[in-house]
Amino acid sequence: MKQTEWYVIVNPQAGSLDDVGALQKELEGLGSYQMAETLNPGDGERAAREAVQGGIRKIVSVGGDGTLNEVVNGISDHLDEVTLGIVPLGTGNDFARALGIEPGYEHAGQFLLEGATRRVDLIRLRNRDLTRLFVNTSAGGFTTIVTEKLTPESKDWLGALAFYVAGARALPELTEYRMTMKFDQKEPMEVAAYNLVVSNGPTIAGGIPVAPAAELDDGLMDILVIPAISVAKLALILPSILAGRHVGNPDLILQRARTFRVSSSPNFGLNTDGEVIGEAPALYDVLPQALTVITHRAAGGTGENKFV
Predict the structure, then answer these.
(1) Residue 122 domain flag
(2) What is the DSSP secondary structure assignment for residue 186, as one 8-state letter?
């Protein structure tokens, strides 16, 4: 691979990308860069891995949270050496939202060159079959069924509203899971539940504030579990979650932890950053400030900018 300073990985199917040529024009200021387009699942991860193995240390993810997840896993063996740029063009863009990065590719080159850097946490998921890093959220139970109902066509047509439509389609498949959970060194907890969300960032599915107090660099994950409650009570709780007013609700389980174990009967699927990847049981742990990302420079600021 010819040595260049930047390697740009683009998902041409991302919802907000209508002209790759226009994106390339915005990136001209980077000078020396290579671009790879993803055509199939896994392409982003492979491209990122090949780039860092070839010596490139500035990697840019252009697309949504799924593309970003692939890129982060592709650079996982070189996290201490790589700086990651994000051009959010997907349906959800929740991790970019947490960083204060607006969607779109206008002035992308200028942003990548002039932005500050910030170190943020990653969360690692391990189950029987794989190890997977994620930047924003992992969910199990009902949310995974919703994810499976999403189609590229619905996301292109409806944007973030597609998540709500998929949720309505998944309601007939609402299942009660007997979960066994362990938060850090606390005693295990057993609960009948519909869903869980493990969060690094505060929002999921295009802005739903499931973990409104979550911070990207505090070394903790925020865990929300929705117990198997009555449909009437669930109908009251869901709007509060959509509005981020559910913290403190005694009908919900909300925990912060550095490590989290979960198993279930029956078993349930898991996703990371919106992509279905496997099943429970799973072990989650935080990798504190493991990733360096480019974000906005504070007015008058220089160097690393922790708060955006």
Answers:
(1) no
(2) S
